[in-house]
Write a structure and sequence with these properties.
The protein has helices spanning 6-9, 17-22, 66-69, 81-84, 93-98, 108-111, 116-119, and strands at residues 32-36, 43-49, 53-54, 59-60, 129-130, 143-144. It is an alpha+beta fold and 148 residues long. The strands form 2 sheets. Strands 1, 2, 5 and 6 form a 4-stranded mixed β-sheet that branches. The chain has a two-stranded antiparallel sheet with strand order 3-4. The radius of gyration is 16 Å and the shape is globular.
Length: 148
């Protein structure tokens, strides 16, 4: 049996549901509205968050029912990560591990500190607005570079 942590010695498809969920660093970037340039395919992040994101905690307020309440909410799985990872931030643990890269040192699984992601500015904490009340035509005005 390996003494290495699970994220270093297991492929994504080998992880238990608990291990899979533990990969999330709580940054909230996946909950930001993204726009795709139809001509180039480039993904642009906005500072507009899903209505279910509690921006003060970087957590979904109804995680277990999110797909029923938000029709375009995507549940990441080992089976779909390769298809959807381009929509995930470059710092996302799921994306990094799928690409054979290590977790960043500030990830709580590496440093043991769940607050590091926020203190180091790697999350949406204090940086986004809720999509409620934002008109779809106004989204291009909310494009930001910091989630990358």
């Amino acid at each position: 049996m390996s003494t290495e942590p699970f994220w270093r010695n297991k492929r994504l498809g080998e992880m238990s549901p608990e291990e899979w969920e533990a990969l999330c660093d709580g940054c909230g970037k996946c909950c930001l509205v993204k726009l795709e340039d139809e001509d180039t395919g480039k993904i642009h992040y906005t500072d507009v968050a899903c209505a279910l994101l509690d921006a003060g905690k970087c957590r979904c307020i109804d995680y277990s029912n999110r797909q029923k309440r938000v029709s375009d909410c995507v549940t990441l799985t080992p089976e779909n990560i390769d298809r959807v990872k381009q929509w995930m931030p470059s710092s996302c643990a799921y994306r990094l591990l799928a690409d054979g890269k290590p977790l960043p040192q500030w990830h709580y699984l590496e440093c043991g500190d769940r607050g590091a992601v926020h203190r180091l500015g790697k999350s949406v904490l204090g940086r986004c607005v809720n999509e409620t009340g934002i008109e779809i035509d106004d989204l291009p005005g909310h494009i930001v570079r910091w989630p990358r």
